[in-house]
Amino acid sequence: METAVPDRPGTRLDLPPARDVAAAEAFVRRHLGDLVDGEVVASPRFRGGQMAADAALATLDITGYAAARNEVWPEERRGASAVSPYVRHGLLQLPLLWEAVADAPGRDRAKYRDELLWQEYARHLYARVGTGLAEGLRHRLAGTPWPGDAHDRDRQPGAGAPSVWDPEMACLATTTRELVEDGYLVNQTRMWLASHWAVREGVDWRDGEEVFFRHLLDGSRAANRAGWQWTVGTATGRPYGFSRWQVTKRAPGLCDTCPLADDCPIEDWPEDPPLTAADEPPGLRRDLDVERTAGPRGPEVTGTPELVWVTAESLGDDDPALMAHPDLPAVFVFDAPLLARLRLSGKRLVFLTETLADLAERREVQVHLGDPVEVLAGRALATTFAPVPGWRRRSTALSVVALHPWPWLRRPHGRSAASFSAWRKAVERSGR
User: Using CA of residue 196, residue 230, residue 137, residue 291, what is the dihedral sign?
Assistant: First the structure.
């Protein structure tokens, strides 16, 4: 096994060959091993890259989705499309998926498109309130901080004192294993784990959100934080309660495998947690600068770029900046200060490495390790707008001479985003 070799800030890294999982793991161990949480092991389920994303799209069939989307176990009963890791990194864009299901059965198409709109809503919300999404949107839920080392506590599902996700419970052991090993959860089990963490056990929901973010290949602050807030009630005032009833309904037979089947700790519904009113973040109910939130409507070119700066949001072949400048090298910077703070699971960085190696088969890709603002200082850049606070901070410190629009499914509006239903009504009224 290769060990981590510290690289000086701004070091240029040579990518491994595409579609070589062992080489991608070795790359992460060597260059990023001191920045990850736990062992560097790729997800056995998902491969990174446009080729893998295109293969997932080619086999996408949502027939029966409306009835089966919430099924959990056995896995063959599931209806989830499992394309979210590719959506998160811009390999499959929401407008593309919207059109891809146009010929699906009507009920399934409507439900699937509802979920695409939810993803878009989360992006709009995060673009508006930014880091305000890390606190309760409309309600506060006081939780017990998770004790111990923040980057060591979840390596073994359920480990620690107290155990939040009890490994003796089949429902929790099965789902946390999938989270930690595959880096993926269907929406139903995300709700199970989040509810058990914060609603039943009373542990701070923000700590649980960090655990999800560390492991999920589709982990984004937008969707992850929005999902936790809707589950635990800080966004709606109506927390989701997880009990044996959901396991019996969505995973029939799983309880029969559980050593606690006759003494189930979640036999009954949990009590509602003590929610209190929160100070709503600015912009939640009205966006006074929607054009800033949404970014440019078309390319804004003020000079001649020499590189296309790609980020974790914009790694697909259809990225607007990559498409507009096909002959320019792409440049990606593994943000060392950010990674040192986040301590992501190794499988997330392997997925990113595979994605970059795949892109490098079709164009020149320069990869660096360091602070993006330092690495890219003085370079004339083309890039695609990204609806995340980190991109906005870094882009304002760089020489972006060609800014390309984000591929929204629905362009942001200025009306209320305090609930999904209010946001959606405004989208429909505006015809965006």
Answer: positive
Phi and psi torsions of 334, nearest 5°: -70, 110
* 3-state DSSP assignment of residue 380: strand
- Strands, DSSP E only, in 205-317? 275-277, 300-301, 307-309
Kindly report the average pLDDT of the chain as a whole number: 94
User: Pick from 122, 146, 128, 68: which is nearest to 230 by CA?
Assistant: 122
Domain 296-404 has CATH 3.40.50.620: yes
- Give the pLDDT confidence score for residue 5 in this predicted structure: 42
- Give the residue among 312, 375, 376 at the shortest CA–CA distance from 349: 312
Concatenated DSSP letters for 59-117?
A: T---TTHHHHTT--SSGGG------HHHHHTTSS-HHHHHHHTTTS-HHHHHHHHHHHH
pLDDT in tens, 215-273: 999 999 999 999 999 999 999 999 999 999 999 999 999 999 999 999 999 999 999 99
Answer for the pair 354, 45: CB distance below 8 angstroms, yes or no.
Answer: no
- Residue spans of the domains in the chain: they are 138-277, 296-404
DSSP state of 239: P
Which CATH superfamily does the domain covering 138-277 fall into? DNA Cyclobutane Dipyrimidine Photolyase, subunit A, domain 3 (1.10.579.10)
pTM here is 0.94
Nearest C-alpha neighbor of 89 from the set 386, 402, 338, 392: 386
Mean pLDDT, rounded, for 322-329? 99
